[in-house]
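Note to self: keep these together.
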Amino acid sequence: MQGILYEEPSAMQFVFITLVIGGWTAWRAGKACAETWRKPHVLALYTLLLAVGVRFLHFALFGGTFLSPHYYLVDAAILLAFSFAAYRFTRTNQMTTAYYWLYKKTSPFSWAEK
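Structure:
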């Protein structure tokens, strides 16, 4: 997988920076956007900016390439998955809690009319 998902010599560096630090930050961004009732396109913009920060951490800490479109897209795709999962999870809880007489939870990421 080295060369496709990450460029560092160890997969643990990729896991720590992109999945742990970046994933946690993306999750919190998705949760914050849902809690403040922002639109999903605002979350997408925030997450793409966060991916630049994650690329910088790879560059500053482990000597990775900063301006690499391939690895930026990999990081951005992973962070978008985390942030939109958090957005839907939080929005589902909001809708089923605030409007309990209208909606019921059908899964952790969706709701339906009662």
